[in-house]
Amino acid sequence: MSRFRGLAAGLVGGVVGAVLVFVVLLLLGVTHVKKETIIQQVEGTSSATYAPQQGLTPTQIYEKAAPSVVAVISTFSASGANGFGFNPFGQQQSGQALGSGFVVSRDGYILTNQHVVVDQQSGQAASSVFVAFKKPGQAQSQEQRIKATVVGVDATSDVALLKVDPKGLNLVPLTLGDSAKAQIGEPVVAIGNPENYDFSLTSGIVSGLNRTLDSPNGRTIPNGIQTDAAINPGNSGGPLIDSLGEVIGINEQIATQSGGNEGLGFAVPINAAINSMDQLKKSGRAEYAWLGVLGQTITSDVASTFNLPVKQGVLLATVVPNSPADKAGLKGGSESVTVNGQNYTLGGDIITDIDGKPLLSSEDLVSTIIGKRPGDQITVTVIHDGKSRQVKITLTQRPANT
């Protein structure tokens, strides 16, 4: 595993950083300032408690799912094989990166992480990609390699879609679950290829939700899933599976001081991966909607300190010129204030909900916009000077430099 900007799961490499500061940059598409941080932790907003339910044992999950998990072996030319910048859970040796992936269709589609098949330091795509399946009854499978085609990659969500010829493979896709239904405390397992120990199973629980992860291109992935299931270099791109045997995430990053697993693993939510996969399958690329604001989460303490008219929502610090938000008349703040070392920008509009759904945080705003497509129209409830109004905004495609 290289020293990824953070440790990701393919785990191609990395280190996780500090707790997310209160002010969140929301250039929706999102730009992220922590270039050396793999993920930043955010308080979860779910108050649900996990209610134990009858499910499969780790052994049962492994027996069912392992044949659908693959090792992903990416080879890079000498000019690009000098290490990975964002190499979360992949492992790089002699111009090769080892990660994981899993089958999502009978006709040969496989999901993995973008950072498993792209050298993050040079931006160079792998010159060749092979996948290896676990043979029934055999512990090792590295000799059973099948050439894969990279259908498309999405650095924003750290997702890559591969394709193999299904002839003679009898592929069985894993069932994709609903990451929005994940609950803290529920049991999960990870299957992958950590440190060349191919097709390893680790188990744990969902330790946290709504974590904000850094993507390979410096943007943010909202709604990340935190787990204490052991994840190490080589796990990147592998499935995080719940007790029903459904995939709820793609293992992608770890927070670590030692460079190895410390019980802080993170997965891209499968809902985000599905959104990316559907676009990659259709056109080979993923597009994201753009609103064009920088925002700050409003809590009851913030509302009380600054005498704001609402106790939750997003306070707009900046509205990007010529963005959809700007064209719709939204306004950013004009007054900078520092309280206890934290900077706030006051005087701007407050967004309280989108399409009737309340915004609890700036992360909610990020997640909502990421779930839209360019051209979608949203209705935003805006408060300014104590007066509420509804504004219709047509989202555009996120510019490449935001």
Query: Roughly how many Å apart are the termini?
Result: 29 Å
What does the radius of gyration come to?
21 Å
Q: What proportion strand?
A: 35-45%
In the CATH classification, which architecture of the largest domain applies?
Beta Barrel
Which stretches are poorly predicted, pLDDT < 50 over at least 5 residues? Answer: 1-10, 13-50, 80-87
- Overall outline: elongated
Helix content: 10-25%
The CATH class of the largest domain is Mainly Beta
- What is the average per-residue confidence, as pLDDT, rounded to a whole number? 83
- For this structure, the CATH topology of the largest domain is Thrombin, subunit H
Q: What is the strand tally?
A: 26
SS-based structural class? mainly beta
The number of domains:
2
The biggest beta sheet is recorded as: 7 strands, antiparallel
Counting DSSP H or I runs of 4 or more residues, the number of helices is 6
Please describe what this structure looks like.
It is a single chain. This protein has 2 domains: 1-23 and 34-49 and 56-285, Thrombin, subunit H; 289-397, Roll (Pdz3 Domain), CATH 2.30.42. With 402 residues, the chain is mostly beta strands. The chain contains 6 helices and 26 strands. Strands 1, 18, 19, 22, 23, 24 and 25 form a 7-stranded antiparallel beta sheet that branches.
Write the layout of secondary structure elements.
Elements: E1 23-24, E2 39-40, H1 58-65, E3 69-75, E4 91-93, E5 96-103, E6 109-112, H2 114-117, E7 128-133, E8 145-154, E9 159-163, E10 175-176, E11 187-192, E12 200-214, E13 220-227, E14 239-242, E15 246-254, E16 265-269, H3 270-283, E17 289-290, E18 293-298, H4 300-306, E19 313-319, H5 324-327, E20 335-339, E21 342-346, E22 350-354, E23 357-358, H6 362-370, E24 377-384, E25 387-394, E26 396-397
